[in-house]
Write a structure and sequence with these properties.
By secondary structure, this protein is an alpha+beta fold. The chain has one domain. The protein is 23% helix and 30% strand.
Amino acid sequence: MPRTGPPRHAPRVPAYAARFPEGTEEFVFVQYACQAPSAEEAAQGAAALAGHFTGPHQPDVLDRGSFVDTAGLHNVVWLAYWYDPQVYSKWEESASVRSAWSGLPDQGPVGHWREVCVIPLERNEILHSHHCDDYATSGVCQHEAVEMHETPVHDYWGAARDRIPASATEALDPELPVFVPSAPGEGETRGRRITVEVPGNVTLIRTAQDWSASTLYREKYLADVRPVKDRGVDFLATNPDSGCIAARNLVEESADGAPLDRACTLAWFASLEHLMTWCRSHRTHLEIYASFYRMAGGAEGPLDVAFWHEVSVLPSGSVTAEYVNCHPRTGFLPLPGSHRRVSGSV
């Protein structure tokens, strides 16, 4: 039940929280990407990686999307989930995956990056506007072993924190209380392989929208909600004083790169409190929130645009971030130079 919500709180619309199989303690989420000056080059680089997500230790869930970053470069991203971290380890340590990553060129116009999270369930929450059985959707809840149950712990500020089990006993304070990006030109990142030591309790959100099956709300979502959401993501991507380290606005795609009627945002924040402060107080998120409820209250019928999000507060040592020949505003590269470890040289 809500710990910080209003007394006798009644959500305006139903929502559903994820329940993993008994005995599950953590899962793995990986972003593997190619970064290039053109969409065609980025797609070619991503296609070269595709074959490595097959075989006996392949991910349980594999999504794909693309976005243009703040430097104007195209990024195609594989989004992979493993329910068993040991299976992921066997995949990552396989000869083919290791040689593919170590063999990536660190010269030329194309870069690659990967961000790996081992996510403890006690530091994660997942919320859907629908049962996963009702819509074909993306993300960790595609797996049949994950069940959904209706929850009253939503539709109030602070609900996301309340849905994270660890928040009942831990403050989840950040190791990086203030995010100040490194100055332009501080440390060369092109032509290098860089591993970033990610501070503890950074927060990752993946929030997504699926209008592929919508007949009632499709036009209203695309006209009234999606543009507002996009403006909010653009704000986060270009305003580090919000505490947002990186924000990516992805168009989701099929395995061969065809665009789908789905989108998702992936954003890294210095802390859960930075994310929640933006949500409850900044006009860009308040506008998203208001546009959603205007749509959901339209009374055309049951909401048939699917919304969901995953929020994780990652303890120290649970995130691995590596960049090969990437521009300095990629992912965690804007962190101060003391967080970077360089191998290879220009």
